[in-house]
Amino acid sequence: MREFRLMGPSFLYLAVTFLAVALWSPAGAEIRLGQPLPPVLLEKDSGGKLDGSPWHSDSLKERLHILMYVDPDEVKVNTHVEDALSQQDFDPERVRSVAVINMAATWKPNFAIDILLKGKQEKYPDTLYLRDLQGELVSKWGLIDNSYHVLLVGRKGEVLFSAGDALSEEQVTQLISIINESLAGD
């Protein structure tokens, strides 16, 4: 009969790997569909609105909010999602758009990104542009870092849709369907 040993280099490697994976995602960083988002405040050194004022995630209530969390180096990953949503022509009083720029995910200087964001804010006044200087939404909500994450937040602050990286056509259809179902329930 063979003896199974729990010691030695193989076991140590497995134990370290398991611990690294288990500890990799911060506690409380997982968002769940149907559940409210953990509160987040972006202000001063952590970011906020383009005018420098603070932003609190509690503002994601009373209307549907489409939140795009974007690495400035990955802005084109989900242009097909942005195009599909703009074709829907949702009433901005019922569906709000929020673009949060993950400034910690890029090598580009903040002042250059700020100039671009101010131009976008003027061009798209119905979209709220925010800066996340330290990756707060990555650590507190578990959003995908160095990529593009799309959230749909309901009127009570609950997560209705969450997907990261390049969304498939099926995911885009699902997102639009959830928005339309939520609006029909008004």
Query: For the residues shown, what is the average pLDDT?
Result: 86
Strand portion? 15-25%
CATH homologous superfamily?
A: Glutaredoxin
CATH topology: Glutaredoxin
Strand order of the largest sheet: 2-6-5-4-7-8
What is the CATH domain class? Alpha Beta
Give the distance, in angstroms, between the N- and C-terminal Cα atoms.
68 Å
* Alpha-carbon Rg, integer: 19 Å
The global form is: globular
What is the number of E strands?
8
Give the proportion of residues in helices.
25-40%
Number of domains: 1
Q: What is the count of helical runs?
A: 5
Order of helices and strands: HEEEEHEHEHEEH
Largest sheet: 6 strands, mixed
Topology:
Blueprint: H1 9-24, E1 41-42, E2 47-49, E3 55-56, E4 64-70, H2 79-88, E5 95-102, H3 110-123, E6 127-132, H4 136-141, E7 148-153, E8 159-164, H5 169-184
Parallel strand pairs: 4-5, 5-6
Antiparallel strand pairs: 1-3, 2-6, 4-7, 7-8
What can you see in these coordinates?
- The chain is α/β, with parallel strands linked by helices.
- The protein has a single domain, classed as Glutaredoxin, CATH 3.40.30.
- Helices cover 33% and strands 22% of the residues.
- A 6-stranded mixed β-sheet has the order 2-6-5-4-7-8, covered by helices on one side.
- Helix 2 links the parallel strand 4 and strand 5.
